[in-house]
Amino acid sequence: MTVTTEPPAAAPPLAPPPRRSAGERARAALPIVARWAAALLGAVVVFSALIVFKGANPLEVFPDMWLSTFGRPRSVSEIVIAMAPLILAALAVVVPARAGMSNVGGEGQVIVGAIAACGVALATDGTLPGPLVLALMMVAGVAAGAAWAGVAGVLRLGFQVNEAVSTLLLNFVALDLLLFLIYQPWRESAAGQPTTPELADAAKLPLLTGSTVHIGIVLAVLATIAVFLVLRFTRWGFRLSVVGGNAEAARRAGMPVPALLLSALLVGGALAGLAGVVEYAGVEYKLRPGFGAQIGYVGFLASWLARHRPVPVLVAAFVFAGLAVAGGSLQLDAQLPAATVNILTALILMAVLGFTQRKARRA
Amino acid sequence: MTAARVAPASATAPPGDAEPLMRVAGFTKHFGEVQANTDVEFEVRAGEVHALVGENGAGKSTLLKMIYGVYHPDAGRMIVDGAEVIPGSPAEARALGIGMVFQDLRLVPALTVTENIALALEGGQLLRLDSLARRIAAASERHGLAVHPKSRVQHLSIGERQRVEILKVLMTGARLVILDEPTSVLAPQEVEALFGIVRHLRDQGFGVVIVTHKLPEVRQIADRATVLRAGRTVLSGVDPADYGDDELIEAMVGHSVPALATERSLVDVAASPVLEISDVSSRGDRGHEALKGISLVVRPGELVGVAGVAGSGQRELCEVALGLRETTRGSVKVAGILASNPRRVLAAGAASVPEDPVGDAVVARLSVLDHMAIDGRPLPKRRWGIDWHGIRRRTDHADARLGLRIAPRHRRLSDLSGGNIQRVLLTRELGLDAKLVVAAYPSRGLDVSNVRRTQQILLERRAEGAGVLMISEDLDELMAMADRIVVMHDGHIAGELAAADFERQRIGRLMIGGAA
After folding, report:
1. DSSP element (H, E) containing B219
2. Is the N or C terminus of chain A more exposed, i.e. has fewer CB atoms within 10 Å?
3. CB nearest B247 (choices: A3, A13, A17)
4. Range of the domain at A49
5. Based on the domain organization, do A282 and A134 belong to the same domain?
6. How far apart are CA B377 and CA A206, in angstroms?
7. What is the dihedral of CA B439, B444, B450, B453, to 10 degrees?
8. Which residues in chain B are closer than 8 Å to A18, comparing Cβ atoms?
């Protein structure tokens, strides 16, 4: 008989995972780097073809874009200013995504945040000191954004309406509300563009000393750090991860799944509402048609590019803000429509998402 | 032998009974650093039933997939009908007369038997369904397989679906039929019927390979057995009658496994129950009535086993007991507390081993340690965050106490194999000092020694005074462990047996709705 006899053990020990040296890890990471490079290169090649088709020379356009974006201090300031609301709008997607939800409603939440801030400004109308108005605007904007997202949350919990659909639809409602307000009750004058009156200087977001950049970027970076810490270390953050990874497992462990889903959406909406306040009190100072330049949607893309992780959102927001500023130079230097850069943005996003997904592994 | 590919081997080997239908020699296959098969020998003769035996991960699936052309061996030779050939795809394997019935039956539920078989047959005969139906009827009669060609697969029982799969394999011209763990999804009576079919096939001269890890089945059906362990052939083509159970288990496991201590302590029937289900009805996920007036009591220090064909309401019973599923009638109390939601049930002192670990408990992206934290108790606080040191200590303690040796704490649970996932969940749930343990298929995916260890742990929990409700598809396990067995059939409790009345045939009859 060929049976070998060994001392009886309760269980065979599990083989330890192979320890990897730094060199091995670097080699393992190489394909990822290569895929990112391929993704970006692919996007640039397709975009070059488009530039050639429009009669311009890519070899001139790209250096021009680079120089006009990073070669001028003014452009760098523009990028930083554009980043602030984008970061907040992206975080508005990151937090619900941790609980497995898609907040496509950043755009609407940004708009109602700005509307609420504007409402505070109009209601107080110079009767209160500027900093107090600013603080009240932030509170109102945060609350309005949260409430707007909360509508989608209630629809999801009460009526099983998918939040991706309801948040998206609420964007159109928010946009119509904005148009109604600026054409009717809040319109500054019947003549000219339909806008609200400009925000009092005292209530505007203060500038960082010695620059043209308002403090929104500081708020956004602080919010990023806060979201990172909360998701990473708190019990609430951990519970969101459980719900997002397997809601049934969370339910079976006695977690209050509906409350967690709702709270994640509310926090997301609040962050988007804050983005609306920052854009209103830091950049535009008045509501107008086309307010916000689709911060909510670009923030959604930035969150995806960052794979819904808070710190990489900073990088993703930088990329999108940089591209937006570069779009201006395309128009000026290469006689291409400014919207052309949106094509490059979309190409990069699709290429990166398409090429860099990690494959599922199983031991 | 140095013959070229597809060279007649009979020219050099003497013909006769010894010439097998299929022979594999020196099969070797590795995946990355894992050596799945090393120098495996295996042969099947015409007119024999050959059991392929081994634990999870012993290399059975790898071997079969190489024979069936799914994987290509790194080294080794395969001889079919005296010709050396290695199939490059399942289609090539089928052309060689090798057919495989997978464990997860691969039929389209919305189609009829005839349509399913039409899908499997290659060539231009697809649309002649009437003549195909006649051929199916004839073939099913010839092979002793009761299958109605016009039935829709979704209306068939698992046993009937299996017969359709076997018929499908036979109609594609197989002479060697491989059955991958065919009995794991069947009730005892259905196993009998399956074995009848297998014997019939053997008598008609087919070669049958049956994969199993249950020794009684090997003894019942197999003419020869091959045992794999850690990717190597431990016993090759032996007559199982020449070996004792201990020897075969030792061949599978590599060491002996202690017998289960089976003495039962007296249950205090006056003690207030830890689980009291009174006249409960409930709907399943598809809206059908899954539980129909169930009443069941589990007392402290008692292990109640639940037997039944899969899908008889076991899952819903567990969920109702844990407050996870709403009842349409009746009441459920855990340790005297109304089980209206999972939170209350957990607070009352319940622990549970889920029926479907991946669907019910494995959280994407989270580590083993993370999973140990979601045990139903409040997360331990440490300032603003979570006391991960405490959870780590708790985990180490439970792992040391239970001895299931769970995977390193930082590994992602979803990256682990089914057996390793189960060990983590068992350690989490059985490491709690629970009053009630609801364990659905607790030994699923485990190898023989861990199955035994898990059974011991459940008995220890019982001895410490916990009430245990245990679902299992292994009647031997239930009969060895339970104080009482309730048998479920179609959402009812078809019968309840005390330990003295445990009898396989009786339980089996109740499982399929007959009278005890």
Report:
1. helix B215-221
2. N
3. A3
4. 34-56+336-358
5. yes
6. 47
7. 20
8. 33
- Residue B500 DSSP code: G
Cβ proximity of A87 and A223 under 8 Å? yes
Q: Is the domain of A310 the same as that of A217?
A: yes
| Minimal C-alpha gap between A29 and chain B (Å) | 18
Chain B contact set for A239 (CB, 8 A): 379
Distance CA B422, CA B240 (A): 31
Q: Is A10 within 8 Å of B257 when comparing Cβ atoms? A: no
Q: Is residue A62 part of a domain?
A: no
CATH of the domain at A135: 1.10.3470
Same domain? For A88 and A168 the reply is yes
Instruction: Tell me: ipTM over 0.95.
Output: no
Q: State whether B342 and A8 contact (CB < 8 Å).
A: no
Q: Are residues A285 and A351 in the same domain?
A: no
Q: What is the pTM of this model?
A: 0.77
- A249/A198 same-domain check: yes
Which tens digit of pLDDT belongs to each residue from B60-99? 888 999 999 989 999 999 999 888 999 989 889 999 999 9
- A342 in the same domain as A325: no
Residue showing tokens 């408990």:
B361
Is residue A345 assigned to a domain?
Answer: yes
B366 with A5: Cβ contact below 8 A: no
- Cβ contacts of B450 on chain A, cutoff 8 Å: 11
In a shared domain, residues A78 and A171: yes
A358 to chain B, minimum CA–CA distance in Å?
12
- Structural domains in chain A (count): 2
Tell me how far apart the alpha carbons of residues A93 and A305 are, in angstroms, rounded to a whole number.
11
Chain A residues touching chain B at CB-CB below 8 Å: 1-14, 16-18, 233-235, 238-239, 241-242, 244-246, 248-256, 361-363
Q: Do A3 and B365 touch (CB under 8 A)?
A: no
Residue A63 tokens, joined: 């250096």
State percent of chain A over pLDDT 90. 45
Q: Do the Cβ atoms of B330 and B279 come closer than 8 Å?
A: yes
- Are A45 and A92 contained in the same domain? no
Q: What is the pLDDT of residues A120-179, one digit of tens each?
A: 998 887 788 888 989 999 999 999 999 999 999 999 998 988 999 999 999 999 999 999
Instruction: Indicate the pairing of strand B337-338 with strand B385-386.
Output: unpaired
Q: How many A×B Cβ pairs under 8 Å? A: 122
The per-residue pLDDT for range A3-34, each reduced to its tens digit, is 444 443 344 344 444 444 555 555 555 566 77
The minimal CB distance from B374 to the residues A6, A249, A363 is found for: A249
